[in-house]
Amino acid sequence: MTVVRVAESKTDETGSCDVERYLRPDGQDRYTISEVAAFTGLSAHTLRWYERIGLMPHVDRSHTGQRRFTNRDLDWLALVGKLRLTGMPVSDMVTYAELVRAGDDTFAQRRALLEATRLDVLQRIAELQGTLTVLDGKIDSYAGAARAQERTGA
Amino acid sequence: MTVVRVAESKTDETGSCDVERYLRPDGQDRYTISEVAAFTGLSAHTLRWYERIGLMPHVDRSHTGQRRFTNRDLDWLALVGKLRLTGMPVSDMVTYAELVRAGDDTFAQRRALLEATRLDVLQRIAELQGTLTVLDGKIDSYAGAARAQERTGA
DNA sequence: TAGGACCTTGGAGCGCACTCCAAGCAACCC
DNA sequence: GGGTTGCTTGGAGTGCGCTCCAAGGTCCTA
User: Fold this and answer.
1) Containing structural domain, residue A117
2) For A1-45, what is each residue's pLDDT tens digit?
3) Are B28 and B52 found together in one domain?
4) How many Å from the CA of A66 to C1' of C24?
5) Best of A142, A149, A152 to mutate (most B CBs within 10 Å, chain B)
6) A68 Cβ nearer than 7 Å to chain D strand
7) Which of B11, B31, B86, B124 has the smallest number of CB atoms closer than 10 Å to its CB?
8) How many CB atoms are located within 10 Å of the residue B32 CB?
9) Contacts from B56-64 at CB under 8 Å and sequence distance 24+?
């Protein structure tokens, strides 16, 4: 199985957008659950759970009932991965997935959801930068204290 | 009860450092658990739990056994609040608290812990900035789609 | 001295996001 | 045909960080 690196702009359910693609074999479009687990870093358990809770669009099955994921599914999982990094709760991601399934009439709601998430992310970044100030102050004070201990031979 | 706003550099167990102080009454140095809950935004439950798990230095008691927090405790809780914002697990905060209790020989370990946390924070900020790119791309695509729908009278 | 607000404890419960288990079916290799 | 590996399911379990409960003691005001 050849795995190639692909990281370029893509087309998904809402038109082109920059979500970095997971590694995937060239030209293939049917993956087993363990292949997808390897590409995405998610466990097979988690992939099944995502499907159960409605976070995946309908996933194809083989004639014996085994899941066969497509490149579209990988694209979706790449987006989910990004949303997960934002700290968006899984329940909100499910809501988003439901809006996508509901069709193009839900663009405004989807956009509102993403804009709310965007504000959360900006706030979180600001918080983290605030913690960096404190952390750096503390680290400096320990460094200074260590130097003082050395000088006094402690 | 007079509550004044104080936000200045402070002196704590490691020397001066910039942790913003919680609101606190002027000149007072003994607070009940519900006062501390009001200042910090933590629940009384959480404050008791922090003490139980070893995340607080020893907290004074009244003659009848009720907790009486001091300004020092408020300073410590302000630092804990910042560490919590970094995403540091509570177990690591407990480790840090134990190092503080162990005395000045642990400066190097405390510093290492904070530097590891600092790197985590930097990485998290980078991740979040990556998600902003995706979010903005998506939001733009929905905005564009909405304009297109309007033009076609959909 | 009564009433209500506030405090104490150990331990149980909760919400989130997984994570794993048991029992069974399917595919493939020797 | 037997063995190994991988897949299926519903449901139970896990770890984290709280959050709450019951039963009782304390503080404050009138």
Assistant:
1) 103-154
2) 333 333 333 334 544 456 778 877 777 889 999 999 999 999 999
3) yes
4) 14
5) A142
6) no
7) B11
8) 14
9) B56/B97, B57/B97, B57/B100, B57/B101, B60/B30
Q: Domains in chain B: how many in total?
A: 2
User: Are A82 and A115 within one domain?
Assistant: no
Q: A48 lies in a domain?
A: yes
Q: Which nucleotide is nearest to B45 (CA to C1')?
A: D19
User: Which residues face B11 on adjacent strands?
Assistant: B16
In a domain, A16, yes or no: yes
Q: Which nucleotides on chain D have any atom < 7 A from a protein Cβ?
A: 6-10, 16-21, 25-27
Q: Say if residue A132's pLDDT is above 50.
A: yes
B124 domain residue, yes or no? yes
Q: Which one of B131, B132, B136, B147 would you mutate to disrupt binding with A, by most A Cβ within 10 Å of its Cβ?
A: B131
Confidence at A148, pLDDT banded by 50, 70, 90: confident
- Looking at per-residue pLDDT, the higher value among B62 and A14 belongs to B62
The CA dihedral of B63, B64, B66, B71, to the nearest 10 degrees, is: -10
- pLDDT digit string (tens) for B91-118? 999 999 999 999 999 999 999 999 999 9
